[in-house]
Amino acid sequence: MTPFRISFCCSNTDPAPWLAGLRAALPQANVSVWQPGDALADYAVVWAPPQQFFDEQPQLKGIFNIGAGVDALLKLRLPPQATLVRLEDAGMAVQMAEYVSQAVIRHFRDLETYAEDVRNGHWTTYPPRQRSNFPVGVMGLGALGARVAQALAHFEFSVNGWSRSIKALDGVRGFAGAAQFNDFLASSRVLVNLLPLTPDTANILNRDTLSRLQPGGYVINVARGAHLVDDDLLALIHSGHLAGALLDVFRTEPLPSAHPFWREPQITITPHTSARTLRDDSIAQIVGKLDALQRGHSVGGIVDPLRGY
Ligand code: NAP
Ligand code: GLV
Questions:
Q1: Domains 4-90+277-294 and 92-269 equal at CATH topology level
Q2: Whole-model pTM above 0.90?
Q3: Proximal ligand: closest to the CA of 139
Q4: In a mutational test of the pocket of ligand 2, which residue from 65, 84, 92 has the highest number of ligand atoms less than 8 Å from its CB?
Q5: Percent of the chain, pLDDT > 70?
Q6: pLDDT of amino acid 2
Q7: Tell me: the pLDDT tens digits for 180-219?
Q8: How many CB atoms lie within 10 A of CB 261?
Q9: pLDDT by residue (tens digit) across 69-104?
Q10: Which residue in 286, 1, 275 sits closest to 143, CA to CA?
Q11: Exposed/middle/buried for 265, CB within 10 Å: 0-12, 13-18, 19+?
Q12: Which atom of ligand 2 is nearest to 272's Cα?
C-alpha cells in the first residue's frame, strides 16, 4: 500500500497513546499531531477541531470523528470531497445500555428515596411498583439507542422506540417519523433521548412534547444538550407533570455554576460521561474503515451532511 499521511487533531485528548496505536496498526502511514502550517494530509482523525484545521487541510480524503455525534463538525466548513466517518458503537453501546438501564431501574425502584431514608436512619419499605406503569420510550434506534432499547426489554420493561425509518427490534414496539411521534410519546412515561442533534431534532424535548408523556414522566437525556429546552423541563417538573430528569449533556459544557439544574432536587446531572470513547476499540474501527476506503470498499458510519447524521 502506498504511504499516506494522517493528521491527528483532537481537543481535550492526550495524543501520545492515539499516535502510538495508529502507528502500530498502520506502519505505512505518517501519523502526526496537527500543527498550523503542516504538510497536507490524506486523512484526519478529529474531535472538535478548529476551522483553521480544515482550512489548511483542503485535500483530505477521509475525516474520522472519534465520537458518535457529528453535530459540532457539521457546523464547520469541511473539504467537500472528504468522506466524513463517525464511530459506530466502538464500545459505546454497552456503556450507554449500562448507564440508561441503571437510571431507569433507579427511578422505577425508587432507590433515591430508599437511599435518603437510609441516610436518615429509617428502615422503611414502600409498596412494589408495577412495571406496566413505567413504559419507556427510546428516541433514536441507531447504534446506541437500539442497544439501550433491547437492554431495557431484557428487564421486562414495556419499551417503545422511535426512529426516522421503522425498526423491528425484539421486545420493542416501533414508531417512526413525525406522523407517529405523538403516539410514541403518549405511550411512554420514561423518555430516553438518543437522537443525533440535527436541524430536525434541535429543541425536540420541549413543553409541547414533554407534556405528552404520561403523568409522572421522567426524562433521560444522553444525546445532546441542545435537544432540550431547559426552562420547559424545569416548568414541567415544577408543575408536577414530570417527576424529574437525569441529564448527561448540556447546551454549555461544563454546565455553568449558575445554571438552575445544579440546584433542582429532581434533576440528577452527570458530566457527559454516559458513553466514553474507548481508544483501542476506536483505533481498531478507524483502521479497519480506513483500510476499506483505501481499497475502494464501502464502510458503515458515513455521515450524510444533508441529513445531519
Ligand atoms: P445513529 O446510529 O446515527 O442513530 C441515530 C438514530 O436516530 C437512528 O435510529 C435514526 O433513525 C434516528 N433519527 C435521526 N433523526 C431522526 C428524526 N428526525 N426523527 C426520528 N428519528 C431520527 O447514532 P448513535 O451512534 O446511536 O448516537 C446517537 C447520539 O448519541 C449521537 O449523535 C450523540 O449525539 C449521542 N452520544 C452521546 C454520548 C454521551 O456520552 N452522552 C456518547 C455517544 C453518543 P434511522 O435509524 O431511521 O436513521
Ligand atoms: C459523545 O458525545 C459522542 O458523540 O461520541
A1: yes
A2: yes
A3: 1
A4: 92
A5: 100
A6: 79
A7: 999 999 999 999 999 999 999 999 999 999 999 999 999 9
A8: 17
A9: 999 999 999 999 999 999 999 999 999 999 999 999
A10: 275
A11: exposed
A12: 2
CATH superfamily of 4-90+277-294: NAD(P)-binding Rossmann-like Domain (3.40.50.720)
Amino acid at 9: C
| Residue from 10, 74, 276, 277 whose mutation best tests the ligand 2 pocket (most atoms within 8 A of CB) | 277
Give the Å distance between the CA of 247 and the centre of ligand 2: 14
Q: 92-269 in CATH: which number? A: 3.40.50.720
Q: Is 49 in the pocket of ligand 2 (CB under 6 A)?
A: no
Catalytic residue among 224, 227, 241, 295: 224
What is the torsional sign of CA 256, 261, 264, 265? negative
Q: List the chain domain ranges.
A: 4-90+277-294, 92-269
pLDDT, tens digit, 9 for 90 and up, residues 2-56:
799 999 999 999 999 999 999 999 999 999 999 999 999 999 999 999 999 999 9
pLDDT in tens, 138-154: 999 999 999 999 999 99
Strand arrangement of the beta sheet that strand 159-163 belongs to = 172-176, 159-163, 136-139, 190-193, 217-221, 242-247, 267-269
Q: Which ligand is nearest to the CA of 224?
A: 1
Residue 1 has pLDDT above 80, yes or no: no
Catalytic annotation present for 272: yes
Q: Peptide bond preceding 58: is omega within 30 degrees of 0, i.e. cis?
A: no
122 is catalytic: no
Ligand 1 site residues, Cβ closer than 6 angstroms: 68-69, 92, 140-145, 162-165, 194-198, 200-201, 222-224, 248-249, 272, 274-275, 309
C-alpha 211 chain-centroid distance: 23
